[in-house]
Amino acid sequence: MASTAAYYYTGCEDDYQPHFLDSCSLCRRSLNQNSDIFMYRGNTPFCSQECRQEQIEMDEAMEKKWKLSSSSSKRSSAVRQSSDSAKESGMNKAVRTGTVAVI
């Protein structure tokens, strides 16, 4: 049985670059011509559903981490802006000090 790479060989050994369907993107196991290839996000091949699912879970965890860091930076930016505006508004106010007597 010929490997998948044989179908994409250009004839120049120096210029050979493996085809993206030659191996699993996660475990790097060779993908055989007569076996199923599990694709993810268009052009990412995997040798099994398990490898593909592991990649999906890693991507989801990374996206969740990115969203959390993005939302926390937005919150800290909003807090800084509100404290800055409070400082500015406090500078424009007149404050009276003294004793108040209530009879």
Automatic annotation (TrEMBL):
Family to which this protein belongs: Belongs to the FLZ family.
UniProt organism field: Salvia splendens (Scarlet sage)
Keywords, in A-Z order: Metal-binding, Zinc, Zinc-finger
Stretches assigned to coiled coil: none
InterPro entries, alphabetized: FLZ1/2/3, Zf-FLZ_dom
GO molecular function terms noted in the UniProt entry: zinc ion binding
The protein, known as: FLZ-type domain-containing protein
Compositionally biased region (Low complexity): 68-84
Lineage, opening ranks: Eukaryota, Viridiplantae, Streptophyta, Embryophyta, Tracheophyta
Pfam family, one: zf-FLZ
